[in-house]
Amino acid sequence: MTWSLPPGIVDRDDPERRSAEATASFLLRLRASGIRDLALLRAMEAVPRAIFVPHRYADLAGRDIALPIGCGQTMPEPSFVASVLEALSCTPQCRVLEVGAGTGYTTAILSRLVRDVVAMERFQDLAIEACARLDRLGITNATIDWEDGLDPHQKLGSFDRIVVHAGLDEAPLSLLGRLAPGGTLIYAENLASTQERRRSQTLMRITLDRDGGPLETAIRPSRLQGACKGRSAVL
């Protein structure tokens, strides 16, 4: 005999229902953190974070926390990723350079917002795994290369948007020179705090005006790891 729930009674253990509730909760937390860009929210809804975190942390993927990902690196919390991408102000026609792809999570989100994404990761292990995740999702307008993103090859041309997932002491001239007219660069600037005798960090946005002059805006505090030049020779 097959039993079914009476009309009007909800099966709380239904996997599909739990998944839908988890997604709704995830989006509500992003909105509560101040994210209002509907295209960005839809993109983050469509990209399952659980695919991009190490398997042992899969049950934490829906929480707004940073997670370790290997090679001594960290995956930022979703609200931080969302704030970075919202500040980047992408349009569907944009060509984006991403420096520090990590697991490929932000790359996958960007792929749903822009025309083309060129992502670079200095750790070969992370780059290989991130590429496999993009393939699993059928993403064809984004690539992840094992390269030094702070010194992209000239043959790649210019970009409308550049995002650097790392802390730097100043805006990298090597990347500012790759911005197209009206382009935007986002990076985390390390700031010395003599009063507290420690270093703080601020997420910065630099947009080129019509004459090519930089317009700088501080976005929010950040805690990204410091940038390292070159490709990792070991991992």
Detailed description of the structure:
It contains 6 helices and 9 strands. The protein is α/β, with parallel strands linked by helices and 235 residues long. The protein has a single domain (15-221), classed as Vaccinia Virus protein VP39 (Rossmann fold), CATH 3.40.50. The protein has a 7-stranded mixed β-sheet. The chain has a two-stranded antiparallel sheet with strand order 1-2. The radius of gyration is 19 Å and the shape is globular. The N and C termini lie far apart (57 Å). The model has no long low-confidence stretch (mean pLDDT 88).
- List SSEs in N-to-C order: HHEEHEHEHEEHEEE
| Number of domain units | 1
What does the radius of gyration come to? 19 Å
CATH class: Alpha Beta
Could you tell me the strand content as a percent range?
25-35%
Low-pLDDT parts are: none
The largest sheet has its strands arranged as 5-4-3-6-7-8-9
Structural class of the helices, strands and pairings?
alpha/beta
Q: What portion of residues is helical?
A: 25-40%
Q: Summed up, what is this model?
A:
The chain is built from 6 helices and 9 strands, in the order ααββαβαβαββαβββ.
